[in-house]
Design goal:
Layout: H1 4-7, E1 11-12, E2 17-21, E3 24-29, E4 34-38, H2 40-48, H3 55-66, H4 70-86, E5 90-91
Antiparallel strand pairs: 1-5, 2-3, 3-4
Helix pairs in contact: 3-4
């Protein structure tokens, strides 16, 4: 049976301001006045966090586009999602 984490499909928090800077992305939360800079890898993860994909789905999608296995990316994708969630930039989307 899937765990809560398996069912969690992170989505971008509403109300954030995005500012692209070359291949990177600056995110600003006007409520908390927090800013985070995403490098090209973190930006790719961010863009896949749409509330429809789990962390495993994000890893699989990135793996396909990079020619890597999902397992090779799972740890880093999970860590990036957790850090963005802890900072308030992602929220869970559960059914």
């Amino acid at each position: 049976m899937p765990t809560r984490v398996d069912l969690d499909r992170p989505r971008q928090t509403v109300g954030l301001v995005e500012c692209p800077v070359q291949n990177e992305l600056l995110l600003y939360d006007p409520r908390s006045e927090r800013v985070v800079a995403l490098n090209i890898s973190a930006r790719a993860i961010w863009e896949l966090c749409d509330g429809r994909r789990s962390a495993a789905d994000v890893s699989a999608t990135l793996g396909e586009s990079l020619g890597l296995s999902m397992n090779a990316l799972e740890h880093d994708v999970g860590r990036a999602i957790a850090e963005l969630r802890d900072a308030g930039f992602l929220e869970p989307h559960l059914d």
